[in-house]
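SAMPLE LOG
Freezer: B-3
Tube label: C17
Construct: single chain, 243 aa
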Amino acid sequence: MRNHTLSLALSGVVLMLSLPSQAEEPATPTATWGGAAELGTIATTGNTETSSLNGKFALNRDGQQWDFSSKLDALRSEEDSVTSKEKYFGSVQFDRKFSEHAYLAIQADQERDRFSGFTYQTTASIGYGYRLLHTEFRHLDIEAAPGYRRDKVKATDAIDEEDIIRLTLKFGWKINAGTTFTQTANADLGESNSIYKTETSLQSQLNGSLATKLTYKVKYVDKVPDENKNTDTEFGVTLVYSF
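STRUCTURE (predicted):
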C-alpha cells in the first residue's frame, strides 16, 4: 500500500513539473532570503527550582518558481535539577509555484520528544497547495498531500509505518505595522494512528529587527504508548531577531 501511494505521488510530481506555468507571478531578478532566531528562558528559585530554555531558528527563501522554508525547535525544562521536558523538532518544505495560487508542496519533518513514548516521529509528503487569500495584510493557504509516517516506540524499539493523508492550513494576518498574528493547523490522518497539531502566535515589534512573540501549541495523538498522554500543550514567550 505504501509503495502504491508513493508511486502515485511521484507520478503526480512528474506530471505537474512538466506543465507550463502560464499564470506565474512576475519574475524577480533574484531570490529573497530571510529568517528569524528566537530564544526564551524562564527560571524560578525558592520552594521549587525550575528552568527552561526554548530556542527556534527559521530560514526561508522566496524565489521565482521555488520557495523554501525550514525550521528547527528545541525545548528543555528542569525542575529541582531533574529534566522534565526535552524535545527537538525539525522541518523542511519546498514549494514549486504553478500560478499565482497553485503550488506543489514537498514536506518532511521529524520530532524527538524524550517524554512522548516515541524515540522519534517522522513524516514526509508530496501534494497540492492552494493560496486562497494573498493580500498585503492577510494570506491563507491550504494543502492536501499523500504521505508516509514512520514512528519508533521507545519502550520496545518497534517501528510503526503507514501511509497518511496530510491536511494543512496556514493563516497570517498583519494587524498593523508592528503586530502579526499567525495560525497553523495540521492533521496527519492514518488508518492505525492520526496526529493533529495547531500553533497560534502573536508577534509584536520592539524596534528594528527585534520583537517579542507569544506562542501556544497543541498536539494530539490518537494512539500513544502506555502511560503517555494523548495531548501535549506548550506556551512560550520568546525574543525574536529577524534577518
